[in-house]
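Fold this: Inactive heparanase-2
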Amino acid sequence: MDFKTERNNVTTASRFLPARSLDKLYNFADCAGLHLIFGLNALHRNPDYSWNGSSALSLLKYSAGKKYNISWELGNEPNSYRTMVARTLNSSQLAQDYIQLRTLLQSVRFYSRASLYGPNIGRPRKNAILLLEGFMKNAGSIVDAVTWQHYFIDGRVAKVEDFMKTRLLDTLTEQITKVLKVVKTHTPGKKVWLGGVGPAWAGGTNNLSDTYAAGFLWLNTLGMSAMQGIDVVLRHSFFDYGYNHLVDQHFNPLPDYWLSLLFKRLVGPRVLAVHVAGLQRKPRPGRVIRDKLRIYAHCTSFHNHNYVRGSITIYIINLHRSRKKIKLAGTLRNKTVHQYLLQPLGADGLQAKSVQLNGEPLVMVDDETFPELKPRMLRAGRTIAMPPMAIGFYVIKNINAYACRR
């Protein structure tokens, strides 16, 4: 987005956006405890096709005057400009644009050390990878984290059955591997963020990417990303655009919001290895066995004061159409477990826009109050029974795991 301050307005070449709208955006993020990363317009160009940063500089000065703590990004999916706006941008020019933006940030004292992220390429296919290669070679050192986006399926043709295909879920691992290879080649140790992710591109699908079914893709994204060292995952979107959002037009939480809330409250950043005995089968030559039962483990979040350090959170996706039993073994055996089981609520089944937690509907108490997320206690040694097409979080209490005490 391209801004310029003028008479208390932030303007673009084609329309006016009141400065108070930027103020509202920042205040919303600040009030919610979020950090705002602002994406600037990369298509404001000079006659020689270099990036025109005049509007960006005006915005930086306006925001600095307000002391807004903002990080910055330039453009969105530059590899798609040809198809979206009939323009092209090569990697050398993209690198120069980011170098120019870094110079602008340094020229405004308040933002001289602000974080800069990019290049926010789209799904890393051939053209996107070539663009990323050139960018990392010429400007990889100036960004604080490398960003890219992943959407699983075309929202214009998606069907509910597609959201349960293990082949679709596994595409993310392949894409992460491609991006990490490029980044490690040019800037070893540089952080990589999934800077935009949603169930479906083209704005998602009504009554599908905003329903319970989308949760399988979302939770699997969080689990796979953590396992492969992706530090930050940014969900597209929170509100209003298309059907990938987390809340509806009345700000009522949709299924992926509740899933995200449970994840944030229960799952810490430290990833643990999972060994599942009896699950893997040796495939026949040329055949790949793709798991419909997906299990991830982390240290329990330190911010959850209901659990002492050393606790472990396991989260499970069961894509089978039958119940599956999981028995904890080794040091996990004979420990008390708290269950947080998510299932759809109502007659719409997988396409429900409401969910239940351990059999109780999840609804806001009022506009400002969350319901209590009550676990169901499973006695020590009890087998975990995962219903078909269900998502569950299981906190293993008082295990005092060494890796989770630090």
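Residues 1-143 form a domain with the TIM Barrel fold (CATH 3.20.20.80). The longest strand covers residues 191-201.
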